[in-house]
Design a protein that fits this description.
There is one protein chain. By secondary structure, this protein is mainly α. 57% of the residues lie in helices and 0% in strands. It is built from four helices and no strands. Helix 2 packs across helix 4 and helix 3 packs across helix 4. The longest helix has 20 residues, at 68-87. The chain is globular, with a radius of gyration of 15 Å.
Length: 93
């Protein structure tokens, strides 16, 4: 999410000299989400929660009443996203 925020704010892609390589590009994850959406495995509510909490760079908490609904959507979305990302080698088992 940090890479998407930086891109939105005008950052340009630079060489990865001297840094650890990224496991994937942000667009790889977006493509997986788009596929899940088209297959009706996730909906816009899932995407909204992933974006909102991703920008905050913290997951919603099940212990906070105001965040419980978002927490449920967050967990559902990540569970459904895990398999496609494993197949692509982005997430380890």
């Amino acid at each position: 999410m940090a890479a998407l925020i930086a891109r939105r704010e005008g950052a340009r892609h630079s060489t990865n000299e001297g840094r650890l390589p990224r496991p994937c590009e942000p667009d790889d994850v977006i493509k997986c989400l788009d596929t899940l959406y088209r297959q009706r495995r996730i909906d816009l509510a899932h995407a909204r929660v992933l974006r909102l909490w991703g920008e905050r760079q913290t997951p919603p908490s099940s212990a906070i009443a105001a965040e419980r609904h978002d927490y449920g959507l967050w967990i559902e979305a990540l569970e459904r996203l895990a398999w496609p990302l494993r197949i692509k080698g982005i997430v380890a088992t």
